[in-house]
Amino acid sequence: VLVAAWLIRHGVERWATISRALRLLVGVLALWLTWVAMYQAKVMGVNFLLSVLFLVWMADIAAYFSGRAFGRRKLAPAISPGKSWEGVWGGMVGVLLMACVWIWIDTQYAVGSQSLYTRLYSRGAPFLVLATVFLTMMGVAGDLVESLVKRSAGMKDSSKLLPGHGGVLDRVDSLLPVLPLAMMLAQSV
Known about the structure:
Elements: H1 2-15, H2 20-44, H3 46-70, E1 74-76, E2 80-84, H4 85-108, H5 116-121, H6 125-152, H7 168-172, H8 175-187
Antiparallel strand pairs: 1-2
């Protein structure tokens, strides 16, 4: 959490001063932790895994539409000029609404396993709100750090494998911090 905030605050110039070996080590560690977290989430149940994945997807979708409709104040213009604070707030609202619907579905239907939201809600509504807002913010941080890496490399897209999507990294950037942190929060309940 602190490293992401530090990287975003210091921007592209500082990224280039970090040794390549350290950047590689941290990148491989992030991928490995995310893979382990995804495997563990699948073990906990498909409903749980999907609820974590949908958190990231809903945050992206709600942030995009609310940012387009209301976005005025730029979040990190030097790193990702299209992102706004209004988009971040819209993403949080979208995730919180989705969490409420998901909890209701978990209670109404036999889904086989608890979702992330039902597990978080078992500690109370305030914990659910704080945890989902935190995870949403970490998804934004993952997205910004990935944009920082692309900017420092002078690239718009991380690959051409998924044309129009910014590359493969744009599909997983928010999942890298969210999956391990969601598992940490879910294990604490």
